[in-house]
Amino acid sequence: YGKNTIKFLRLHREGKKHFVKEVEVCTHLRLTSAQEYLDGNNSLVIPTDTIKNIVLVLAKKNGIPTLEQFAIDICKHFMTTFCQVAYVKTYVQEVPWQRLHENGVPHVHSFICVPDGIRFCEAEQCRNGPLVVFAGIKDLKLMKTTQSGFEGFYKNEHTTLPERKDRILCGELFCKWSYGECKDFDFDCIWNKIRECILEAFSGPPDCGEYSPSYQKTVNSIQMLILSKVSQVQVIDVVLNNTFYNVVDMKNLGLTNDKEVLVPVEAPYGSCTCTLGRK
Amino acid sequence: YGKNTIKFLRLHREGKKHFVKEVEVCTHLRLTSAQEYLDGNNSLVIPTDTIKNIVLVLAKKNGIPTLEQFAIDICKHFMTTFCQVAYVKTYVQEVPWQRLHENGVPHVHSFICVPDGIRFCEAEQCRNGPLVVFAGIKDLKLMKTTQSGFEGFYKNEHTTLPERKDRILCGELFCKWSYGECKDFDFDCIWNKIRECILEAFSGPPDCGEYSPSYQKTVNSIQMLILSKVSQVQVIDVVLNNTFYNVVDMKNLGLTNDKEVLVPVEAPYGSCTCTLGRK
Amino acid sequence: YGKNTIKFLRLHREGKKHFVKEVEVCTHLRLTSAQEYLDGNNSLVIPTDTIKNIVLVLAKKNGIPTLEQFAIDICKHFMTTFCQVAYVKTYVQEVPWQRLHENGVPHVHSFICVPDGIRFCEAEQCRNGPLVVFAGIKDLKLMKTTQSGFEGFYKNEHTTLPERKDRILCGELFCKWSYGECKDFDFDCIWNKIRECILEAFSGPPDCGEYSPSYQKTVNSIQMLILSKVSQVQVIDVVLNNTFYNVVDMKNLGLTNDKEVLVPVEAPYGSCTCTLGRK
Amino acid sequence: YGKNTIKFLRLHREGKKHFVKEVEVCTHLRLTSAQEYLDGNNSLVIPTDTIKNIVLVLAKKNGIPTLEQFAIDICKHFMTTFCQVAYVKTYVQEVPWQRLHENGVPHVHSFICVPDGIRFCEAEQCRNGPLVVFAGIKDLKLMKTTQSGFEGFYKNEHTTLPERKDRILCGELFCKWSYGECKDFDFDCIWNKIRECILEAFSGPPDCGEYSPSYQKTVNSIQMLILSKVSQVQVIDVVLNNTFYNVVDMKNLGLTNDKEVLVPVEAPYGSCTCTLGRK
C-alpha cells in the first residue's frame, strides 16, 4: 500500500537565480504485519497521509539533488525509521521544466514545459537486502522517414503484410535500466549520456542514418550501445510501441502517391519489448 | 513482442435479434529465437500484422462465446500452429455495450455503452506448460458515505492525520483472479457472481451497511467473500485506489459544515493492494 | 475570467438514508471595469478563490435541489451581491453516482458510478437581461447494428465511398437545450423525459427499429421528437460524433465476412451538428 | 457537419534530406439545403469520406507550404467546387516534430516530438464573404517563480484569500489571432515572432523579470506586445488557465517553509480570457 502522485515543486534560490524541480512521487510499503488486513488492527499502519508528509519533509530538508538521490533518501528514511516496514519502493518522475532563454540569454526565474521524453527513477529495498536503483526515460517519440524495412519474415496463410524495404519507423520509447550496487554515481550525467545513446542508435549517422531491418534489431542496437558506452548500467529494459504509417492508396483518385501522404495507424499498434543485461 | 489494442466488434444475428461483443485484444509472443534481435534475421518472426489477422479470423470462425474462451482459443492457436512460439499471452477487454430497453422491452438491435466496471480476462501459456486463465473487473468506482473510519494507526512526529470514525470511503477497484487449472467453467456466470460479491463486501447489508476500519480490511473482506462463495477461484489480486473526501472547513466563512460539503482530493491518492489465495 | 472544475460532493442525510450529489462547477464573470487589464488595479476584481468559496457556501446553505436550480442560485447571488459584475455564467456537471441495489433492495448509503451519459446545465445572465437556463446530456454512446444506411449522396471524382443500405450506426451524442424564460420547471423530470426521447428517436420501436438514411436525419428526428413531447424546450443543439465500423475484408484470408467482424475507425470521425428551435 | 481529426504525414524529400509535416485536420461544411435533415434526401450531401479524400489529395498535390496556406487551399477548393456549400471552416493542427541533432549536426531524416506549445490555424469562408484566417498556439505551459503577486482585490465576507506579493505564476496559454484580410503573409515567420512576444511578455527581461500584479495584466501585456510588434495581427484572444502553487504549511511538522516546497492545485483552476483588437 502507499501513496501515488505526490506532486510538488521544490524551489531553490541562489540570489536572483531560481532553480525548479517539480516531481511526482509514488511511495509504497509492505509491512511485516497482516493484522490490518485480517482484524482491522491498524496499530502498525503508517497512514498514507504520513507517507506524503515524509516525502515533503525530505524534499524540504535535503532538496532534490537528483531524482535518484531523492528516491534513495526516501527509501532509507522508511527503512531506518520504521521497523515494521518489510519493503519500500519509491518512484519519482520529473515535470520537464526547462529554463527559458531570450535571444540566447538564460532567464533567472522563468521556465517552459518541454515534454520530449520524461525522466523517472525508482529505488527499492527489502529489509536486510540491498538498495536497488533504476532510472529511465519514457514517452520519447521518435521518427525516421527512411532507412527502415521489414523483410524475410515468417509467412503462412494468415500473412497479408507485404515485404517493405523503405518504410517510416515511428515509435514511443520506454527505456529503464538498473544500476546494480548503488555507488556515488553522477546520475544526471549518466542519464543525459543514455538519452544521447538512444537517439544515436535509433537514428544513425546524421548524414545517412543506418538501416533498421526490424523493431527488434533497433531495440537491440539501443541496448548494445548503452551497455558499451555506460559502464554503470547493468540491465536495460526497452519497450518500443510503434505507430505504423500507411501509404495512402490514391490510385482510385487518379494519383500516384510515392510515400508522400501517409496515414498513422494508432490502433492496433505493435509493441516490442526486450531485456538485456551484462554476462 | 506483439499487437496491442486490436479493436473489433463481433456481431451475431439470430433472426431480427442482434448480439454484439466489442473487444480490445492484446496478444504477445516470445519466440524461441534471438536472431531477430541480434542479426536482424526475421525468418521466424510472425509479423504483428499477422497476429492481428489471426485474432480477427478466430473471431469470425468461433465467435466470442465468452471473453475467456476467446482468449483460450487464441493462445491454443499460436501454440499449435507455430513451433517457434515459446510463450503466448492474450488479454481481452470488453466495451460495455448493454441492450437498450424501452419501457422494459428489450430492443432487438440497439445498445448503450454503460462503463460501470470493465470486464477483462487474460490467458497465457508457456510451451509444455499449462494454459492459465485469469479474469477480472477494473475501473469500478464505488462510494459509501458512512460506516467507514480509520483509527488507532501508528503515529510519530510526521503524523498530522486525525483519527476518524465516520468518513466517506470512495475508490476505484481493480480485481483480478486466477482459475487455476482451466476446465469447462461458466465464465459469464462466475464473473457476475464475483461482481456481486465485490458490491456486497464493499457496502454491507442494504439497510445498515457494515463498518470498515481501513481500506486494507475492506480489500480483505472482498477477497474472503469471493473465496468462500466461488470455488473455481484460486488467487485474487485486489487494488483499491481511494479518493479522499475532505470536509471543507467553513468556520472562517461563518458556517458549520457537518460533513455536508466535501471536496475530493484526487492527487495524491492512496492505494492498497493485496493478493490472497487458498491454502 | 473565473474558476473551473470546482468539484465537490453535497451529502444530504435523512436518518440512515443518504443522498449524494457530486458536481463539477465552472463559474465565469465579466466585470464592468477594464482597469485590472490595463493598469493592474485589482480593486474590483473578485478573486477566483472567492468565487469558489461562494459556490461551496451556496451548496452548504441551499443544497442542490436540481443542477439547474443550483446554477440559477449561483448566477443570482453574483448579480445581486456585486454591482461590478456585468455578466455571469455557471456550468454544472454531475458525477453519475447511482444508488447500489442488492437483490433489488436499495442501499441506504452505497453508490456506484455509472457514466452512461453525463448530465449538465448552464445558466447565464447579463446585467439587466433575463436569466437564461440550458440543460443537456453528453458522452452518451449509442449503437444500432442495422436499420441504418447512406445512399443517393453527391458524387464526384473524389468520391470513393460506396452506397450502403445496411451499416452500423454508432455515435457519441451531445444534446443541449434552452428553456427560454425560466419558470418553476421540474428539471429532473424534464431531463429524464428528454433522455428517453433521445433513446427512442435513435433506436425506433424495440421489435424492429426505424431506418436511418443519414446521421443528419437521425439528429433531426431526435430534435423533432423532443420539441413535440417537451413543451418547455425552446431550442435544441445536437452533435453526433460517429464512429464508422468497417467490415473487415477477409477475401485474401479465404473467408466471407457477412458483417460479422467489424473494425471501428476512430480517426478521422464524422460529426454532424444541428440547431433546431420553435417558430 | 464535417470530418474531424484527419491525421496524416506529408513527407517531402530533397535528395537525402527529408522534411515532415504531420497534421490533424478538421473540415466542416454548411450546405444551402435542409432536405437531408428533413426528408433524408442526400442528393446534395458531400460524404465526410469525400471531405477526407479531398484533404489528402490537396496535401498530395500542393504539399503543406504552411499550415495557414493549406487551410486556405482547402476552403477555396470547397467553395469553388461545390455550389451547395454555404460555409466552410478548416482547422489544422501540427504534430510538433523537430529535426534531431547529433552534436549540433542536423539529421537528414530523423525527428523527435517536442510538444512545447502546439501550433494551429483556422480558415473560414461564407459564400460571397471574405476568407478569414486565424492562427494560434495552445498547450504552452509557462512558469515564473517570482515577480508575481495579487493584492488590493475586492473583499467581502466570502473572501479568505490572503494578499500575496511573491507567488508562483504558472499557467497554460492558449493564444489565437486573426489576420484580417488575408494577403501574402509569411505565416511561419509571424508565428515564430508571436511566440517570442508571448515568452517575452510573460517573463520580462532575463536578468530580473517584470512584476505581474494579476493574471489579467499579464494577459493584457502579451496582447499589447503582439499588437505593437506584429502589424498583420488584427485581434487576439488569450486564455490563461493557471495552476496555483500552494506553499505547504510545515509548522505542525516543526519546519519553516520559505516557499521551498509547493504543491500544485490542479482543481479547481482559475481561468482568465481576454480579446483585444486594434481600434
TrEMBL record, chains A, B, C, D:
Pathway where it operates: Purine metabolism; urate degradation; (S)-allantoin from urate: step 1/3
Chief subcellular location: other
Compartments (UniProt record): Peroxisome
GO biological process: purine nucleobase catabolic process; urate catabolic process
GO molecular function, one term: urate oxidase activity
Catalytic reaction(s) noted: urate + O2 + H2O = 5-hydroxyisourate + H2O2
One Pfam match: Uricase
Binding site for O2: T48, N242
Keyword Glycoprotein: no
Matching InterPro entries: Uricase
Binding site for urate: T48, D49, F150, R167, Q216, N242
Keyword Oxidoreductase found: yes
Residues holding 5-hydroxyisourate: T48, D49, F150, R167, Q216, N242
EC number in record: 1.7.3.3
Keywords of this entry: Oxidoreductase, Peroxisome, Purine metabolism
GO cellular component: peroxisome
Family: Belongs to the uricase family.
Function according to Swiss-Prot or TrEMBL: Catalyzes the oxidation of uric acid to 5-hydroxyisourate, which is further processed to form (S)-allantoin.
Identification of the protein by name: Uricase
Native source species: Aramus guarauna
Gene symbol of the encoding locus: Uox
